[in-house]
Amino acid sequence: MAKRLPVVRGLRRRWLLNSVGPVLLIILLITILAGVAVNTTYYGTARSSLEAKAKASADYFNTYTMNSYSEYYRTASLYVASFDESDVIELQFLNVSGQIETSTRGLTAGTSPGTPEIALALESGAVETFNGADPATGERIMSVSSPLVFNGVPVGLMRYVTSTRQIDRQAVLVSLTIAAAVLGVALLVVVSNLIFINNVVEPVAEVTEAAKRISGGSYGIQIPNRYSDEIGELVENINDMSLKISQSEKMQTEFISSVSHELRTPLTAINGWGETLLADESSDSTQLRRGVGIILKESRRLTNMVEELLEFSKMQDGRFTLRVESVDLQAEFEDAIYTYRELFRQEGIQLEYEDGGELFEQSISGDPERLKQVFCNVLDNAAKHGGAGKRITASMAREGDEYVLRIRDYGPGIPEAELPYVKQKFYKGSSRARGSGIGLAVCDEIVQRHGGTFEIGNAEGGGAVVTIRLPIEEN
After folding, report:
1. With pLDDT > 70 as the criterion, what percentage of the chain qualifies?
2. pTM confidence score
3. Per-position b or e across 434-455, b if 16+ CB within 10 A of its CB
4. 443-454 pLDDT, tens per residue?
């Protein structure tokens, strides 16, 4: 478990950096942009409102109230006295020197505000705005200055001044609200992703631990599958792999044990009869013939087993090849039948062949030696496992574009539970017959390489039947 945790942390860290990190960065950028937008909106709205008020008031003052320069001060004083927004905005009238002549706050009269928009407005003759710290008090203000003109000559300025404290407070409040909402979203993203990654990491860690146990030799272990997504599919595949490895390991162990036994039995017989014949000083021809016959029979068994092992070795390392030529399939099949018929008769087994009276002239492409190996192996297998029925039938027929060969015995058949595995390497099932358990696997490989199929099943009425289908060569 201690070795697994760094892997889990590493996966979680990579997920947070690669997936959650960019999302949080985007959220941060959105927050900053939103804060800037809020400030810009609030100050922009206040500025536009103040500029519009100043321009409208100055235009009205210039057009309707300023009849003469001598009346300027009196009219300005009356305008200041009637100003109804003095609680939030200070209205000032300045002379061309930038000094306050009258104001809604009388205490500022005679002073000079010193903000740069005053000189700019006198110079340009247009409305100018200042936003920043008041030079006199240090308070943050927004001021708008609009020129007052009489007979085309500037005689002063109308200036609106307001504190931006309320604007700052509103902007900060909205920005904090946005930041809190964004922080909530960020926390939701992080928590949801942590929950998700934990739901991924834990099964992965469990599968990793199981894979380590399997690689360490604990074949056949099963992981509880509590998932219905891709993780569940992975767990199912790991379980299937573990089971198949366990089965393969078991079959291989049984194969080694079986082959060891199968090799020891004929060797024991050969050694025993060889010693017996050497020690027998009599000239009993019957005893001699019997001993030599047994030695030949057991030697043949050893030869067949060694050939099967060699074929299996070639299949495993890719050296299993075919020497393809045009093959008279009927001749090769009948040759194998006639070869085994006498051998079976000596064991009390009757081998019957049915060709339907046809002559199958159309050849196939294949390796005659390999095909004959298949026929001989299947016939030998039928006698070995179904010889109790004392009868074996073989037939050949044409069905469409295929030749179909069937070999059937009348023995006990194959248990239904074992049918899916009989062609697997090393599998012997419940059979106690001698053999390595790879003969049928070799036969299946040969037939498949000829483009055909090799099927094993139980026949109606008892016994097992092998069906070989091979494609006919097109002329």
Report:
1. 84
2. 0.45
3. ebbbbbbbbbbbbbeebebebe
4. 888 899 899 999
